[in-house]
Design brief:
The complex is a heterodimer of chains A (282) and B (125). By secondary structure, chain A is mainly alpha-helical. Chain A has one domain. In chain A, 72% of the residues lie in helices and 4% in strands. Chain A is globular. Chain B has helices at 16-47, 58-66, 70-98, 102-123, and one strand at residues 2-3. In chain B, helix 1 (16-47) runs antiparallel to helix 3. Chain B has 4 helices and 1 strand. With 125 residues, chain B is mostly helical. Helices cover 74% and strands 2% of the residues of chain B. Chain B starts with a strand and ends with a helix. Chains A and B meet through helix 3, helix 4, strand 1, helix 8 and helix 9 of A and strand 1, helix 1, helix 3 and helix 4 of B.
Chain lengths: 282, 125
């Protein structure tokens, strides 16, 4: 085992998880571009490693969200039907897709993530529950730790949410990311779910989605323990540190900086698809 | 509040045990996976054996485990992490059924079916 490379991959994964948790994206979106651009790791191996790191992160994070009831289990299972299906299809497509096509798709996803970070999102406002029809029996509530108030909500536009979840699953399967980058804003803005509940439910869902991806990559011999193990350890430690740091550091001050990193990685992948490599990249 | 147009009768209180069961599976899945991973890394360092650059097929893991190969222990740890969300879906599906929430019990089984397709693809390797 090359200890130096092991440590480097672990440190980079930890840094990705810290930044990811500060931005609320998870570490997956950073892992694949960094592994491929700076370590020269085969893209499919990087996607497989990222998928397993996402599973590990979800297994740890979900139990905390479940305890605080941020996770809506009924909603998670409903949306998971299309998300897991999308992920399985996406993973099969991703395993066979040419690297150049995946670089373009990943580059565009990173540019989308960066843009959505820059544009100030208008948080969905709670609707009067008396006006809302709960056709799917998805009404749920949790105690908001900040205000100590009970927040009750009923997810809206469930059919549209199922469609978005399928799309998020496809991207997740193809690129090895969790899919939260699409799922959380969609849940909040489209389905009018409070951000904490959206993040908690998404955190639970992405682990299941990434399992669908991971097994497909496993079957195609794209899981490399020398990459997966440091990524798992790094993502786990980084997300623990990230969640603590987020409470202490004013993350908003760092958002612009990290958004520039997202833009840089996105553009780098698009350029790589055009066979242009920036200095310092492989 | 207009709700439950023919939807499952189970209230949110009725599915509290489902949450508890999911937390238990996730917590123990992580502890088990992390323990096995740590063991694999320690054995790898003691035996000075490098990690494989590819996981073994499922059928080969057990025999190599009995040979005390650290790579097989690491493979088992990766599989434990991968199996944890699967097991959670099983527990959630059963929990919904027990709570009388047939709709979400069935949906959870559908999710499990989709995941089983991925697993089957792996087994066919």
């Amino acid at each position: 085992m090359d200890i130096t490379r092991f440590i480097e991959l672990g440190v980079v994964s930890a840094a990705a998880a810290i930044v990811g948790s500060m931005l609320g994206l998870g570490g997956g979106v950073f892992l694949v571009p960094i592994f491929t651009l700076f370590f020269g790791i085969d893209q499919k191996i990087a996607i497989g490693a990222s998928a397993i790191a996402v599973v590990t992160n979800s297994v740890v994070g979900s139990s905390i969200h479940l305890q605080s009831r941020f996770t809506n289990l009924r909603l998670a299972m409903l949306l998971q039907v299309t998300m897991a299906t999308g992920a399985t299809i996406g993973a099969i497509v991703g395993v066979w897709a040419p690297e150049r096509a995946l670089n373009v798709i990943f580059g565009l996803v990173l540019l989308y993530a960066a843009t959505s970070m820059l544009l100030k999102r208008t948080a969905a406002t709670a609707q009067e529950l008396s006006e809302v029809d709960d056709e799917w029996n998805l009404k749920a509530s949790y105690i908001d730790p900040a205000s100590k108030r009970e927040i009750t909500y009923v997810p809206q536009q469930v059919r549209a949410g199922l469609g978005v979840s399928g799309f998020a699953g496809m991207l997740s399967g193809m690129l090895g990311v969790g899919g939260g980058v699409i799922q959380v804003p969609a849940m909040n803005l489209l389905m009018r779910i409070p951000v904490k509940a959206a993040a908690g439910t998404s955190s639970f869902m992405v682990g299941i989605t990434a399992v669908a991806t991971a097994f497909v990559y496993y079957s195609r011999e794209k899981i490399d323990p020398t990459v997966v193990v440091p990524a798992m350890i790094g993502i786990f430690l980084g997300s623990q540190a990230g969640s603590r740091l987020t409470r202490r550091v004013k993350a908003r001050n760092l958002v612009l900086f990290f958004t520039i990193i997202l833009l840089y990685l996105g553009i780098s992948l698009l350029l790589k698809a055009a066979n242009i490599t920036l200095p310092g990249q492989k | 509040m207009n709700q439950q147009h023919g939807a499952s009768p189970a209230s949110n209180e009725a599915i509290v045990p489902v949450y508890r069961a999911a937390i238990r599976v996730l917590t123990w899945g992580f502890r088990t996976g992390a323990g096995i991973l740590l063991l694999g890394l320690v054995v790898s360092l003691i035996k000075r054996e490098a990690l494989n650059t590819q996981v073994d097929p499922f059928a080969d893991i057990l025999p190599t485990l009995f040979d005390g190969k650290p790579a097989a222990i690491i493979d088992l740890a990766i599989l434990t992490f991968m199996a944890t969300p699967l097991l959670t879906v099983v527990v959630v599906a059963i929990g919904f059924m027990r709570a009388g929430d047939r709709r979400y019990g069935m949906l959870s089984f559908v999710v499990l079916g989709v995941l089983c397709i991925s697993v089957t693809l792996s087994l066919l390797r």
